[in-house]
């Protein structure tokens, strides 16, 4: 999961960072202009915007993102409890509005619920073949047995499952894993995928992740009987880019 946080209150920002960093890659914006630039540049799973940011307000950032047809889910963190302010945020395209004081744990729960809905999942558990991944606990199981993964392997599998049936480029994986900071060479993705496949092969799910030559990788939901594919590559492969 990749998250953009634009919150200027030091205490709240620290609280949110401690909560959100284990959930995935966390980028921060110190003002509205930076939030708008990052929101346009990277493929975030969700954006948390304080309504009263310096420079461009959070509401103006949201308006411009939606005017640019960016559909990334956005939660507005508001200082106001007035219904008309909540209505204004929702009318601009916010997916949710949270007013102070609020619990940081509730923020995470609402984020996960919104992400599940926008990715087409109603539950926190994703599945493909005999494999299940829980977004809340970050646990992976095959046939009810835990599958031990490194942090990078989990992040790659999570991205593949959230975008199941889409071809993901190596650059998309780099962006997801490193957030544009100190990125290694692109071939490291092949290494991570290879190690992940080895673990899946031992669990009899070695064909779950396929290589689309010259494009990237795709996760297919193989049916339990006969190995039939749920996402055929006809008439054309859809491609997700960073």
Description:
This protein is of the alpha/beta class and about 240 residues long. It is about 40% helix and about 20% strand. It contains eight helices and 13 strands. Strands 2-1-3-4-5 form a five-stranded parallel sheet, sandwiched between helices. A four-stranded antiparallel sheet has the order 6-7-8-9, covered by helices on one side. β3, α3 and β4 form a beta-alpha-beta unit. It is elongated and about 55 Å long.
Structural class: alpha/beta
What is the mean predicted local confidence, pLDDT?
Answer: 81
| Strand composition percent | 15-25%
> Low-confidence parts, pLDDT < 50 over ≥5 residues?
223-242
- What kind of oligomer do you see? single chain
As laid out across the biggest beta sheet, the strand order is 2-1-3-4-5
**Strands, total number:** 13
Total of helices: 8
* Biggest pleated-sheet summary: 5 strands, parallel
Sequence of secondary-structure elements: EHEHEHEHEHEEEEHEHHEEE
Distance between the termini: 14 Å
Rounded Rg: 19 Å
Give the overall shape, derived from the CA principal axes: elongated
Helix content: 25-40%
SSE topology sketch:
Layout: E1 2-6, H1 10-20, E2 25-28, H2 32-41, E3 46-50, H3 58-67, E4 74-78, H4 83-92, E5 96-99, H5 104-118, E6 125-128, E7 131-134, E8 139-142, E9 145-146, H6 151-162, E10 167-168, H7 170-178, H8 187-202, E11 209-212, E12 216-219, E13 239-240
Parallel strand pairs: 1-2, 1-3, 3-4, 4-5, 10-13
Antiparallel strand pairs: 6-7, 7-8, 8-9, 11-12
Helix pairs in contact: 1-5, 2-3, 6-8
